Amino acid sequence: MTTAGSVEFTVACTPGDTIKLYSGISLLGTKTCTVSPETLSMTVPLTDGVFQIATTLSDATHTESLYSPSVTVIHDQTTRSAPGTPDLVDSSDLGTFNTDNITSNPQPQFSVECIG
User: Fold this and answer.
1) From CA 46, how far away is CA 79, in angstroms rounded?
2) How far apart are CA 75 and CA 34, in angstroms?
3) If we measure between CA atoms, which residue out of 114, 51, 64 comes closest to residue 87?
4) Does the pLDDT of residue 50 top 60, yes or no?
5) Per DSSP, what are the bridge partners of residue 55?
6) Is the pLDDT of residue 79 over 80?
7) Phi first, then psi: what are they for 110, rounded to 5°?
8) Taking Cα atoms as reference points, which of 59, 52, 56 lies closest to residue 74?
9) Is the full-model pTM beyond 0.85?
10) Average pLDDT over residues 32-38
11) Sign of the alpha-carbon dihedral angle for 26, 32, 34, 36
């Protein structure tokens, strides 16, 4: 899972090969292999969603290989709300009042409200 708009992939290749990165039939990036393994960045940013990413290699005669096995990439740029303020659980609050947030408990427990 990623929130980055572009993801890098490392591909084993033969120098001189052309590496193509696909999601289905959509071309996401291309690069000429100079050293193996080669790192390839996407040139098309991802939108939110689930993508099956695969590569092909083309040799000097431009013969393109079959698709590699795909890897699933989940892209999610949804803005998350900040968690609530931690609160010492009453049973861990050993102060004069169970609401004063004073404790001598060496392993206190806290509750935190998570929204969204």
Assistant:
1) 16
2) 29
3) 114
4) yes
5) 21
6) no
7) -125, 155
8) 52
9) no
10) 95
11) positive
